[in-house]
Amino acid sequence: MSNCTERLYNGIIKENPTFVLMLGMCPTLAVTTSAVNGLGMGLSTTVVLVLSNMLISMLRKIIPDSLRIPAFIVVVASFVTIVQFLLQGFVPSLYASLGLYIPLIVVNCIILGRAESYASKNPVLPSIFDGIGMGLGFTAGLTCIGVVRELIGAGAVFGFQVLPIADISTGQAGYVPVTIFILAPGAFLVLAGLTALQNRFKRSAAKKGKKVPESAGCGEGCASCGNSACSGKVFPTGNEKE
Question: Residue 66: which domain range?
Fold first, then answer.
């Protein structure tokens, strides 16, 4: 069970898809105009991630290597279709807000990346927890960005008006929304700000001698990667002798 706990910690903190690995940037920047949209997209992706990890892990010894990517896409697309129908039937407002980005979950690099690097090489239970950890990390990232953008851009959080809006026609004083934050440039500004804030906390903790989690994601090339999720696979660099 310690391995399962490690997978949760890895996805939420150590290798957070949004703030550490910088994966899934398309939905991160596009749908986080509000906290509800960020939470909805995050949870939808989490469901697909957990179910696809589970099924791919169960079939890992059956799927041939030459067909693994097409097989992964078919599995992910099947679960995305189910989630899309459920959202359309039970949460039509959220379905309308997310729009095209729901079917685009099929090609989300987080889902395909975890299927390729972890679920296809590990047992079912750790793969499920890996999906839960990565999904919750992605959900937390999207929700945080959505909260900041909605609060600054509209003075609200989860649709509830937190800051009274100024009314020029009546002369009522109040908060003047910075509408750029609910537009496309605002997504980049908030993502950059939250990432910088996280890095600042890490540096402060490191200066105080506290242990700071380091990402085990790829950054130096596959041949030198120490990530256990890659199962020690070393890819050819072109300089090997026959």
Answer: 2-161+179-184
